[in-house]
């Protein structure tokens, strides 16, 4: 315990170590936040759920914070649900004999300098034989009333206003439905009219005993910005992958570095202690393994066997334990083996297993700690590299898969820089944090490097 506090005090003397610890603490906070707020099953559902999950998200929307740095305020996504008591939806019921008419009034403020991406109305209805009938009217801030259209409602109905050619003709010379509904009259160039808008949906129910709960309508005005991280080409919220990619990356890197270094150290110690054929066999396996191309092997396993991130991790550890570090550990253990306290342990009858684990390995733990910390980013980058090559885990949302999707969709060529820069920044931050801490630990545990700031 005394050595721990002494080493901790030494760490605080290095600004780089403090910076590295702060970065790692930030990444750990994100990991805990992601796991607590978005359980694993929910994260997979949000990332692979399909259109039913993503339908209210805009496509290829930039993060909302870009408006802070832009002179032009981009439109935000507006979602109004008639079943949500907190939304600005006024509901009125009118009795018509045995049937009822329902009026839904959606009210929202619009103050952006750009037009929305899209406008949609998702309606659901419960009925036995006679379909409900809906009429829609649009009211602008300056009092203009625009008839949107009329339609029968099926159990699940999606009405995309921007794809309605009749509505576009009804709006006159406007090139898009968005401009026709939001434009400031006689503006050149066209610009949106700021103010309070209303969408009035009048629904007629024709079956006796119908209630207001038999109809639900969700109005969505898709903006050009959304959330903290934006969305991709499939309308997925990128914050899910960025948040959950953090614990996955840290777990992959930590398990890879810890498993590789610990197993390599034990094998090297056993080879030195037993010597003879055991040591020679370990060295020959290491020499053969050093010439094996690791990345092509991982690509073949991902392509022909499994793309599970944990199977890939196991193969990486298996290929890494007989790496170049085993020769470094062997050289150190050869010196440790000749120490006087090893002879004393043999004299009082300590077993081979006890000598290896209790007397040899603890001597080089101060050397393995910096290597362990510095090695974590290399495993994180390797997982991201495999994902970018299209061999990422098919279930888990990771940083590498986000970059892969961006690359396939030509994000950089289409101006969606955030799609690439966000996961790339997290990868760089991870590498920077562990490298700063690892180099500082190397200076602390290596006497020859002490004093180098």
Task: Please describe what this structure looks like.
Helices cover 51% and strands 16% of the residues. By secondary structure, the protein is α+β, with helices and mostly antiparallel strands. It is elongated, with a radius of gyration of 31 Å. The two termini are 26 Å apart.
What keyword list fits this structure?
single chain; 51% helix; alpha+beta; 453 residues
Fraction in helix: 40-55%
Structural class: alpha+beta
- N/C terminus separation: 26 Å
Kindly state the number of beta strands: 9
Helix and strand run? HHHHEEEEEEEHHEEHHHHHHHHH
What is the radius of gyration computed over CA atoms, rounded to a whole number of angstroms?
31 Å
How many strands, which pairing sense, and closed or not: the largest β-sheet? 5 strands, antiparallel
Strand content: 15-25%
Mean pLDDT: 88
Note the overall shape: elongated
Question: Order of strands in the sheet with the most strands?
Answer: 2-3-8-5-6
Which consecutive residue ranges, at least 5 long each, have pLDDT under 50?
Answer: none
Number of helices: 15
How is the topology of this model organized?
Blueprint: H1 2-11, H2 15-37, H3 40-48, H4 51-54, E1 78-81, E2 89-96, E3 99-110, E4 118-125, E5 133-139, E6 145-152, E7 156-160, H5 165-170, H6 177-182, E8 195-205, E9 215-222, H7 238-274, H8 276-290, H9 294-304, H10 309-320, H11 325-337, H12 340-347, H13 352-388, H14 399-408, H15 417-445
Antiparallel strand pairs: 1-9, 2-3, 3-8, 4-7, 4-9, 5-6, 5-8
Helix pairs in contact: 2-7, 2-15, 7-8, 7-10, 7-11, 7-13, 9-10, 11-13, 13-14, 13-15, 14-15
